Amino acid sequence: MITEVTGIRRIRMLYVQLLYRCNFRCLHCFHGERLAWRDAYTYEQAAALLGLMRADYDLEAVNFLGGEPFLSEHLPALLAFAKRTLGLRTEICTNGFRITRQLSGCAPDIDLLRVSLEGLEEANDRIRHPGSFKAALETFERAADLGIATGATMTVTAANAADVVPLAALLQQRGVGQLKLHCLRPVGNAAAHPDLQVVDPVVYEVLYRRIADAGLRIEMIADEDLSPAADGAGCRPAPDTAVLDRIESDPRGNLTMSCKAVGKDAHAFTYDKTLGRIDYHPSALDELTLAVPDVVYSRV
Ligand code: SF4
C-alpha cells in the first residue's frame, strides 16, 4: 500500500513503539498523556509487522522503543525473531533504568543499545527521573561487560545545553560509541514545559563552538535544526526517492514517516494489527498532504 501511494519501495528501518507505558514521566516526553494509555503490541502483532516490512519493503533494521521497551514482556522474543529469523539489525531505545538483569538474557540479539540521558546527573534526574543518571551509567557498564555496543541520545533544552560537552566526554570515557542530539519539539509533556524550549539561537552557536573546541572522539550526531547555520536548512522536503530511511509505528499501529510528525497523529498509513495489513487513510492534516519534512541528522 505504501508503494502504491508514495512510490517508496524500500524502507531501511522500522521503529516499533511496543507500548506507551513507561516507568518515567520525563518533562519533555513527546507522548504526554499517552503514557497512561494501555495500547501495546503483542508478540504476534509485532512479529507480523516485521515480517511484512521485511518481505514487502526489504527492511534492514528495527529499533524497539516505547514508552519503555523493557516493560514489554515480548521484547526478548521479538529481538530474537528480528535478528535470527529475519536477519535484521536490532536496536533498542531505552531509559536504561534497572534493566541490567534483563540485558543479560537478550545480549546476543542486540546490535545497539541506545540509552536516553538529558545531561549530567542534576539536569538529567530533574528532567527524567530521580536516580536515572546513575542507573544509566550502570547499564552502560553492564552492556560493556556483555559486549553490547552502546549509544546515548539527548534532547537539547534550555536546561541542559551546557551539559552536552561534559556528558559527551564522560560517555567517551566509558566507551559509549555515539551521542545523538535531538531538537526539542513542543508536543506532549514538552508543550507543558515551555521553559525547556531554547528560544535564543545563541545557545546553539555556543554549543557547536564548544563541541568543536572539545576535540571529542565520541561520534556526535545532531538534528540539523540544532545547527546555528540551519535556519530551516535542517528541514527539507521528503527526498524524491524510492527509499525511505525510517518509519515509526505507535502502539496502535499508526505509521509515521517524518520524525517531525511523530506524536502529532499526522499519519497517513496504519498497520491493522488484527488483519495484518497496511491501510491508507488520507486526510487534510496527514504528513503526506502537508508534506511534513523529515528530520535531518548529520555529524557534528
Ligand atoms: S521520554 Fe522515554 S523514558 Fe521519558 S517518559 Fe517518555 S518514553 Fe518514558
CATH homologous superfamily descriptor: Aldolase class I
Number of helices: 8
Radius of gyration: 19 Å
State the end-to-end distance. Answer: 37 Å
**What is bound: which ligands?**
iron/sulfur cluster
| CATH architect. name | Alpha-Beta Barrel
> What is the H-and-E element order?
HEHEHEHEHHEHEHEEEEEE
Uncertain regions spanning at least 5 consecutive residues: none
Q: Do you know the CATH topology?
A: TIM Barrel
DSSP strand content: 15-25%
User: How many strand segments?
Assistant: 12
**CATH level-1 class:** Alpha Beta
Count of separate structural domains: 1
Walk me through the structure.
InterPro entries: Aldolase_TIM, Radical_SAM_PqqE_MftC-like, rSAM, rSAM_sf. It comes from Actinocrinis puniceicyclus. One of its GO terms (molecular function) is metal ion binding. It is a single chain. The protein has 300 residues and is an alpha/beta fold. The chain has one domain: TIM Barrel. 28% of the residues lie in helices and 21% in strands. It has eight helices and twelve strands. A twelve-stranded mixed beta sheet has the order 11-10-9-8-1-2-3-4-5-6-7-12. Helix 2 packs parallel to helix 3. The two termini are 37 Å apart. The site of iron/sulfur cluster (SF4) has 13 residues, from loops.
